[in-house]
Amino acid sequence: MSAMGPPGEGPTIPRRAGWPPSPSVPGRPGRPPVRGRQAILNGQDRPELWAVIDEAALLRLGDGEMMREQVQHLIDVAEDTSNSVTIQVLGIDAGLHAGVGGPFVLLDFDEGMNALVYIETDTDGLYLVEASEVERYRKLLLHIQVAAMKPPRSLAYLKDMLT
What DSSP line would sit under 90-156, residue for residue? Predict the structure, then answer.
């Protein structure tokens, strides 16, 4: 689970989906524990995180306890004024959109470090560092943000999922 998943969730969704465990790769450290990643969002040097979540991904959670926990956690993160997290939901009614090619992470850094794009695959990650590639994904993100529900509407949508 990402830094935005509920505490303790870890690999629950992949496990419930029947995905095989990720292979261990010698010499490549694993990701920090979920709680460690979540603490980053509230730390002193917290990053700004802007997440656009496809409505279809939310609907795939079903209507059970796991869905309620996941969605409630997103609501809690979105309402927490001590972090720099913005959440948008990209509605199914957006149709084919700029993000249809799959998820990606655009990482911008302070001065002295170039931006990069991270694309996660089933077994590995791909880093795009060429300026032209990063700019393409920056434009894709902008188109996705424009097509998504605005943050207040996204929060209301998430709350409606729990009623």
Answer: E-GGG-S-TTTT---EEE--STTS--EEEEE-SS-EEEE-SHHHHHHHHHHHHHHHHHSPPHHHHHH
CB distance 149 to 157 below 8 Å? yes
The structure tokens listed for 108 are 């911008």
pTM for the full predicted model: 0.73
Residue 82 phi, psi dihedral angles, 5° rounding: -85, 0
Q: Shortest CA distance to 85 belongs to which of 48, 34, 44?
A: 48
Which amino acid type is present at position 124? D
Helix 65-79 to helix 151-161 angle (10° resolution) is 150
What Rg value do the Cα atoms of the chain yield, rounded?
16
The domain segmentation of the chain, as residue ranges, is 1-16+33-38+55-91+149-163, 93-147
Question: Is the predicted pLDDT of residue 33 greater than 90, yes or no?
Answer: no
pLDDT tens-digit series, residues 119-161:
988 888 899 999 999 999 999 999 999 999 999 999 999 999 9
